[in-house]
UniProtKB/TrEMBL annotation:
The keyword Transcription applies. This is IclR family transcriptional regulator. SUPFAM superfamilies: GAF domain-like, Winged helix' DNA-binding domain. PANTHER family: HELIX-TURN-HELIX TRANSCRIPTIONAL REGULATOR, ICLR FAMILY, HTH-TYPE TRANSCRIPTIONAL REGULATOR RV1719. InterPro entries: GAF-like_dom_sf, HTH_MetabolicPath_Reg, Tscrpt_reg_IclR_C, Tscrpt_reg_IclR_N, WH-like_DNA-bd_sf, WH_DNA-bd_sf. Keywords: DNA-binding, Transcription, Transcription regulation. Residues 4-66 form the HTH iclR-type domain. It holds the Pfam family HTH_IclR. SMART domains: HTH_ICLR (SM00346). Residues 67-251 form the IclR-ED domain.
Length: 259
C-alpha cells in the first residue's frame, strides 16, 4: 500500500469499475478491490460526492460517474492535441531557430507531451514524458495565468507546495500571483534560469472552447545570446502558435492575453 492508502483504494475502485460492462453491486467491488464493507461504503460515498461514481439506488449498484468520464476525455483530448501541435511546433522552431515544446498541466507539474528540437541545439530537460514544477516553467505559468484564481489557490495552499530547483522562483502564493499578473499583462509567460541556469523560455497557453487552458506552447533559448529584440520576436511567434492551436481545438478567437 502507498503512503496515501485512501488514494490507492479510490484508484483501484475506479480501475475496476472501468473494466465492467455494467454497474456492479457493492459486494463485487469489495471482493475485487479487497476492501472491508465499511471502507468500501464510505469510499464510494466520497467518490459519489465528487462525481467519480454514481449509485443506482433501485438496483443497488455502482458505476462510473461523469467526473471519471471527464478525466478519460481529458486524455483523449491531449493525444489529438499532441498530433495537432507537431507541425505548428516544427514551424515555430524554423521561425525562431530554437527548440519548442508543448506541455499540459498535471497537478502542480507540467508534463511535456511534444518536443521539437532545433538542429544543432543540445537536448533540453523538457523531453517528452518529463515533469517539472509548473510554477517554475514558462509553460506552467502560461497555463496557471489562464486558470481561475480559486483553482490556483487550491493547487498552492501553502508554502510547502512551492518546490525549488536552483533556489529561484516564487515561494508563496502572493509571489506566484504577482508573476501570473505580469504574465497576463505581457501576453506571455517567461522564466530565466529557474529550470536550467543559462536558459530562458517564453510561453503562451492553448485554450479550449470554454477558454480553459489545455496546454502551454514554449520556446527555450540561451539567455546570454538573446537580445531584447530577439526575445520579443520569439514571444510573438509563440503567441501566434498558441493562437493557431487554440483555433484548431475550437477555442475562443480572442481569449485571455497569455496563457
Amino acid at each position: 500500500m502507498s503512503q496515501v492508502p485512501a488514494a490507492t483504494r479510490a484508484l483501484r475502485v475506479l480501475r475496476f469499475l472501468a473494466t465492467q460492462a455494467d454497474p456492479v453491486p457493492l459486494e463485487r467491488i469489495m471482493r475485487a478491490c479487497e476492501l472491508p464493507r465499511s471502507t468500501a461504503y464510505h469510499l464510494l460515498n466520497t467518490m459519489i460526492d465528487e462525481g467519480f461514481v454514481v449509485h443506482l439506488a433501485e438496483e443497488h449498484r455502482y458505476g462510473l460517474g461523469v467526473a471519471a468520464f471527464e478525466v478519460g476525455s481529458g486524455f483523449t483530448r491531449q493525444e489529438p492535441l499532441a498530433r495537432l501541435a507537431r507541425r505548428p511546433l516544427a514551424a515555430l522552431v524554423d521561425r525562431t531557430g530554437h527548440g519548442a515544446h508543448l506541455a499540459v498541466l498535471h497537478g502542480r507539474d507540467v508534463l511535456y507531451v511534444v518536443e521539437e528540437r532545433a538542429p544543432g541545439r543540445p537536448p533540453l530537460v523538457t523531453d517528452v514524458g518529463v515533469r517539472l514544477p509548473a510554477h517554475l516553467t514558462a509553460s506552467g505559468r502560461a497555463i496557471l495565468a489562464a486558470l481561475p484564481a480559486s483553482q490556483v489557490r487550491a493547487l498552492y495552499p501553502d508554502r510547502s507546495a512551492f518546490v525549488e530547483r536552483h533556489g529561484t522562483g516564487p515561494t508563496s502564493l502572493s509571489g506566484l500571483r504577482s508573476i501570473l499578473t505580469d504574465t497576463r499583462q505581457r501576453g506571455h509567460a517567461d522564466e530565466d534560469g529557474e529550470v536550467t541556469p543559462g536558459l530562458q523560455s517564453v510561453a503562451a497557453a492553448v485554450l479550449d472552447h470554454n477558454a480553459h487552458p489545455v496546454a502551454g506552447v514554449a520556446v527555450t533559448f540561451p539567455s546570454e545570446a538573446a537580445s531584447t529584440a530577439e526575445v520579443t520576436a520569439i514571444a510573438e511567434a509563440v503567441r501566434a502558435t498558441a493562437a493557431l492551436l487554440t483555433r484548431r481545438v475550437s477555442g475562443p478567437a480572442a481569449g485571455p492575453a497569455a496563457g
